Amino acid sequence: MKLKLDVSDVTFMVSLAPVAKEYDGKHQTDKDGSLKWTTELIALGSSEDEGASVIKVVTTGEKPNLPKGKPVSVVDLEAVPWVSKQGTLGTAYRASAINLAGK
Q1: Are 41 and 13 contacting, i.e. CB atoms less than 8 angstroms apart?
Q2: What pTM does this model have?
């Protein structure tokens, strides 16, 4: 199940520039062969009582040019809950694009 997220009131900032998403030392690809990239973002809520969260967001295609510390906009962010064979729970985040804010 994929859950589309409304991030219209969230401010994002790059905490780690994009890196190749790897498994067993190999750069992962999407079903269509596009390379996968992971960008670590800080997500700041808009209200005074909301803190910040750090999330890793996967995109595909060309490596995004997103320097550390820059504000960004996240396009079509979705959360994908997962469970490992060992019973570990988690959430993966994917987006169709991450763009520098104002572009």
Answers
A1: yes
A2: 0.90
Which whole number is the average pLDDT over 85-101?
Answer: 95
Q: What pLDDT score was predicted for residue 103?
A: 65
Task: Give SS3 for 44.
Answer: strand
- Name which of 39, 36, 42 is nearest 54 in CA terms: 42
Percent of the chain scored above 90 by pLDDT? Answer: 89
User: Mapping DSSP to helix (H, G, I), strand (E, B) and coil, where does residue 35 land?
Assistant: strand
Beta bridge partner(s), residue 55: 41
Query: How many CB atoms lie under 10 A from the CB of residue 64?
Result: 18
Residue type, 25: G
Half-sphere exposure of 46 (CA within 13 A, CB side): 5
36-44 vs 78-83, strand pairing mode: unpaired
- Tokens found for residue 87: 């019973």
**pLDDT for residue 51:** 86
Q: How far apart (Å, rounded) are the C-alpha atoms in residues 64 and 97? A: 8
